[in-house]
Amino acid sequence: MASLQPSNSKIQLAATAIVSAAVAAGAILSYQRLQQGERVSRLKQSIPRPDEEDALQKLSRRGPVAKLTKEDEHNQYLAQRAHNGDYDEEMILEQLARNRVFLGDEGLAKLRNAFVVVVGCGGVGSHAAAALARTGVSKLRLIDFDQVTLSSLNRHAVATSNDVGLDKVQCLERRLIAIARWVRFDLRREKFEGLTAPALLAPWGGRPDGQKPDFVIDAIDNIESKVELLKYCYDHGLPVISSMGAGTKSDPTRVTVGDIGTSTDDALSRATRRRLKLLGVTSGIPVVYSTEQMGEGKAALLPLAEEEFQKGPVGDLGVLPDFRVRILPVLGTMPAVFGYTVANHVILKISGYPLDYVQAKGREKMYDGILAFLQGTEEKVVRATTDGSPTIAIGLKVPITTGDVAFLVEEVYKSRSVVTGIPTKLVLVRWRKPQESSMIRIGDEPNEQKSSNVRLRDLVCMTKEEATRHLKEVLQGNKSVEDLYSPSVIQKVEERQTEAEANEQYR
């Protein structure tokens, strides 16, 4: 028995050590969770609610100021001297020598005189901004309301652990002035919204006669802000390029540049494209997107844990309303690929270097033809549901735009007939015959306005031949859709109508 005592003592000692280590680890983890909770709480409290009167002013204030190291102070001093003209031109040209040889003197001069706005300074935006600064762009306006977090470090272009808690725009300036001292930065710690667009995209220096943005980069991951930015740029003739979703992507060879009308079906691309079409923007905006297909074993948007739902409304977990609260898996290399692809496009466009991206397939003429067909069928429907007078529908207006046509045909019906799946000679036609007159009349002759009451949810996509039969037998005749089509077709139409109705709010 005595010989077993040392062994037992060792076992007891080991067990005590394991228990102590477990207790210590638990205490450390609990402390870390507590600290993280306090930081998140402080961050949320620092960002005002949208209903606060001074929300915009609060969002525009600078966040925590970086504690300057001696190196930072030295960099800022040299940058200020460079801005005052105390920087040798030959040194700048030497730093940009490779770009100069590639773009030529004229191309480089255009780039050095350029003013570019980067909206969103996270993974994609930070890499784009860094590439522009390194390549010679001299004026950069950086827009982002957010701060650097630990989780930012796997994909941010320049942030270090010392930058955690700082404004992303401030972090970029802090690091990039050490690379390109002559670059001037205009930092805007704000969330981009439609109401703030005129100020955030204003000419350099805020003067009406100042230099307008030569290009705007959209690196926003919030759909509402993204659509507002792209629509504003489209309406005001500002050159813009948009980055679609880099999350869950892993194949850099599938990243490409194309027109908004040709982008594929990642979630962000699809939602952006749909909203823009409903606002009348069907093409003319270059986008960076991935053609990679999701599949078994690949990353996907992770759901919130069940315990988070038990705490109350999940919207409370977001720093700002309408922002994603689920975890988006991001491979750190992919935002860099997207960011450099965006910057590459901007650099070549501004410098005038030859560049071709996939154009939209000239579909505007097709949309006009579909709209004209719908106009004609609605006039016939009005005559069929009124007294039948040949002149009753003269001057009838249809509340459908080419953007609505693009949305219905391409997004809802996937460019196929709902009846047969045929993808050619497509048109839109009303699905069911109205029970009463479908015409709305306002005013009196000679200023009377006549319009159809047709809505997006009323229309279906068919081939021209199918629609002609449908018009004759259902809309002008006495047959019902149940008489003419199978239950599976009717069910499919009802599903598409529900989808169209859900999106009408975005028009």
TrEMBL record:
The record's section on InterPro entries has: ThiF/MoeB/HesA (IPR045886), ThiF_NAD_FAD-bd (IPR000594), Ubiquitin-activating_enz (IPR035985)
KW Membrane (keyword) present: yes
Subcellular localization? Mitochondrion outer membrane
GO cellular component terms, semicolon-separated: mitochondrial outer membrane
The organism is Cercophora scortea
Q: Which Gene3D superfamilies match?
A: NAD(P)-binding Rossmann-like Domain (3.40.50.720)
Q: Recorded GO terms, molecular function?
A: ATP binding; tRNA threonylcarbamoyladenosine dehydratase; ubiquitin-like modifier activating enzyme activity
What are the entry keywords? ATP-binding, Ligase, Membrane, Mitochondrion, Mitochondrion outer membrane, Nucleotide-binding, Transmembrane, Transmembrane helix
Question: What protein name does the entry list?
Answer: THIF-type NAD/FAD binding fold domain-containing protein
| Topology class, membrane | Multi-pass membrane protein
Function according to Swiss-Prot or TrEMBL: Catalyzes the ATP-dependent dehydration of threonylcarbamoyladenosine at position 37 (t(6)A37) to form cyclic t(6)A37 (ct(6)A37) in tRNAs that read codons beginning with adenine.
THIF-type NAD/FAD binding fold domain boundaries: 98-359
Q: Which GO terms describe its biological process?
A: cyclic threonylcarbamoyladenosine biosynthetic process
**Which CDD domains does the UniProt record give?**
YgdL_like
What family is this?
Answer: Belongs to the HesA/MoeB/ThiF family.
